Amino acid sequence: MNGLEVSVHREKDRTVLRVAGELDFSNINQLQQEIERQDTKIVEIDCSALQFMDSSGAGLLLSIARVLNLQNRILEITHIPEHIYHDLDIIGVFRVLESFKASRPTGGN
Fold first, then answer.
1. DSSP string of 59-102?
2. Which pTM was predicted?
3. What is the pLDDT of residue 105?
4. What InterPro entries does the annotation carry (predicted)?
């Protein structure tokens, strides 16, 4: 079994967490703790090196998106491999993220 590696790159108002390997029930706490350490307006999860994600990983992303939304912060999930994108789309992750985006006050962006 492959593990999960998380690397952190911080810019002004954005933190990019690049996840590599497998995100599943055995290691979602690792990613959750890393996300919770961040205090930037935007937290981006770069999935370009992610090989596998199970439903607990998708659940974590939804949970974190809700928490950040309540804090008037943004979760962005980027560079998603096709097979993982398909699963997240079926689960409805992108609809939830879009609903959060639509509910944010507009202010020049």
1. HHHHHHHHHHHHTT-EEEEES--HHHHHHHHHHTHHHHHHHHHH
2. 0.90
3. 73
4. STAS_dom, STAS_dom_sf
